[in-house]
# Entry
Amino acid sequence: MDAYEALSQIFYLIIATGGAIFALEAVLYWSFYKYDKKYFILTSAAMGVLIAGLVVVFGWASEQTPVILYGGLIGIIAGLFNKLYWKGRYRIPFMMLAPGFLAVSLLVIYPFFFEMKLAFSNLNLYTINNWLNGGDLKFVGFSNFINVFTTSPLQTATFWQLLGRTFVWTGINLFFHVGIGLMLAILLNRKIMAKGFYRMLLIIPWAMPQVVAILAWRGEFHPQFGFINQFLMAIGLQGISWWSDPIPVFISCIIVNIWLGVPFMMIVFLGGLQSIPQSYYEAASIDGASKWLQFKEITIPMLKPAVVPSITLGTIWTFNNINVIYLMTGGNGGSEHADILVSALYKSAFTYSRYSFSAAFALVIFAVLIIMTLIWMKISKGTESAV
Amino acid sequence: MSGELKINNVVKSYGDKNVINSISFGATKGEFVVLVGPSGCGKSTMLRCIAGLETINSGSITIDGNEVSDKAPKDRDIAMVFQDYALYPHKDVYENIAFGLRMRKEPEAQIDRKVRAAAAKLDLTELLQRKPAAMSGGQRQRVAIGRAIVRDPKVFLFDEPLSNLDAKLRGDMRVTISRLHRELEATAVYVTHDQVEAMTLADKIIVLNGGKIQQMGTPVKLYYHPNNIFVATFIGSPTMNLIRGTVDAQLMFTSENNLKFQIPERFKENLSAHELAGKKLIWGMRTENLKISKEDQQGQKYAASVEVVELMGPQTSAHCIIEGHAVNVMLPTNAGVKVGDQLDLVFSSSHLYLFDETSGVSILDA
Amino acid sequence: MSEQENKKNWWVHLILIFGVGTAVFPLLRIIAISLRPGDKIFSTELSLFPTDAHFDNYIEVFTEIGFFGWLFNSIVITLLTAVIGVALAATAAYALSRYKFPMKSSVMVFLMATQMIPVVMLLLPLYFMLQKMQMIDTYAGVIVAYSVTTLPFCVWLLKGYFDTIPRSLEESAQVDGCTEVGSFWRIVLPLSTPSLAIAMLFAITQAWNEYIVARVILQSSELYTWPLGLFELQGDFDTRWGLFAAASVSVTIPVMLVFLYSSKWLLSGLTLGGVKG
# Structure
């Protein structure tokens, strides 16, 4: 589609969005303000069904009956709650929350359920055309899930290898992000000249657009013309085939991700360090504590609360980081030796067109994430109570 | 134009907790009503219910005959002065004051006239172009008041407006508020925890505790005829002294430390109606009820030993021990009272404060 | 700064200079490559500014490939994402900041949880959904996807700021004559411009630099955003390094300047103080 058509699509989008929000607010308004009227429940359900019907007519719904039922259900639920329980009390917050919630439910919740449906069906390269033309999908039970664990998502790696590699990836990155970030933050926290200058330059990896940075680094890892190998050869070592050998590929990705992630951690640590009142250190040095002791007993405990949320976030971002792997290994058709779970997911869906398989794969990855989060929460609750 | 306010059996609860327990009172046109009480007694909540910022569970609020219990704040024709002034930081003083009028779509010329009139009343004319951030606390408070008076509402509401000011400013602002009230003949409900503000500003004081009205009346009435211990100790500064004891058939009050006080004859009639024998009682004595006795003075005398002395201006607060009881007495500073002095004090009061210890209720509704 | 302290800190400076060197290295390299004439692209020189530097690559980038087209696409998508995303986030954040209502904590937890979901997970169903609605290969599809992914963080940011605005300001406005929504619109929003600006900046940064989602949704090269276009320049066999470098530099320098200029603001924005009446 060309640019002009795309632009006109935008008007379409704005009108549709505006209309959807308007319709939603109308239903809510009716629910919250007029719940005393006689045929209230009936009209609520009718409104819900009407809107759902419009959606179907526009051809946006992939199935018609569920959507209409969904619409009617929303109308009834909103109505019942109001008539019996809330009596119009929470109208303002709900009406204000509604547009955002509508957007999120359409584009996060609904796809989630859609993904579950895909995971239990047999959509792949062969059946996709049939399905797109209005055909139906076969229900295949748990076979996709079993396939995730038994057959390989990629030609070169099984699920377990990918899982292991992802953990290694996350662990090594985390270690260096925190280690180097903390060290730089401590250095920047001292009284030295040109502190601001250093700080500004050190966040350049964060300031550069990721795509540019990664592709530039990819160039530097080029076996022949990249800086890395030229440097190695200049000091008498042999060049490494960063682009093709399994382990060097992985290592090059790790190096680039560390380079990308350190500034964020550094800034977070710096902020944390600067918020520790000097008086603690002064009291400690009067008491005769060594620098190392001060670090252990003052700096680390006081940094923890300020820094743990960011570390958690950083870990999740690293675990889910697809950009670095994908771009460093040359995208579709590039090396698959560095793939972690999420990049393998992308490839199995969009390169190999194993759609249902990918849906199951995605849900498995999500389950892994949830388990990790629960374990993390238990651990951090444990240390919290210990403190 | 000021109006009449009626509060009828208002109940307000959060979950199962009753913050306001069926309160009723009224404010006639031009009356200045003050709600006082300790923190958590429900006075601010009551004010916010009148304003419409909180909903009530039952009861009714009427302004000039119109029931407003279900109406939004903007439809009640009230104005409110907040504790933290609540001035719009991005607007200058003129716009802050004009905001309410603009919301009501009044014509520009009229707005200008009203704003300038209000500013003049509060000495704000030079500050009209300033932003709140560039003003002192006292100036901001005047702007907040100006914003309220420019709307000419039926009822003015004040939510502890002077709490954030320093002591001297507080005194000045009290006078300003008093003056404005008289000029505008405005109906006002004023909430404070400071009983000095209550006593000085109110036409009628309502003392609240635990969501219930303890007593309602003029400052003088509450001072000399408190209904119960709570009101007696809350009103009046420094606090009333309390002495535990019993009264025998001869109306002799004997404290737990054997301090004796003979209740004057004239109270006999009132007291005879009550079964006093054997009841645990509390005798209240205000700090000005004891004076330094002169040589031949008649009256009940007590020996006091001075422990702590606080100079408060023309009066000095002397914390003494009388027969084992800690008693606070206000004495003239030029009497030269010092720590360690042994004083002869004489009881001098036409009022008697006697309370039932168990119920806290005043025995003499004198 | 005493001489003693200076001497003590030389090793600090050494480490920092090494860090800075690593940080700016790729940037300097692509600047150097962009300035090299075509025949010297693959030279093994390590120098930063070659002696015969010239701007041929830049000229070609600006005139021959669809560079400005990419920029245009990116601008359209980014601006609309920022506006829609922040608008939706503002009302939601206000509701979360000021009101108690049933299921409020679930909503907040849910918002946090969506940050955890990798985009890739939702890409597949999103792709099919957008296809059904015929929004594949349009600006609209990308805008829709971006607006929603940027929502949770913007809501969190704006809620934090709204929390610092004293409620008495809105109450005063309501007594003065505003409805509840009116006090939001007339008082709270104007006071929140710093935070709104930061949220927009964040949304813009996210949308501007995004690659994977755009890759899946946009298919005609006419509609490519600049990351997609840049990737095109770096194929496996016929990488046009000079052009790639020049295009990279052209996009990177403005973005970095904006980021560095607003970084102090941005970082303090995560802890923005409030408004005192």
Notes: Residues 3-119 of chain A form one domain. Residues 149 and 160 of chain A are 7 Å apart (CA to CA).
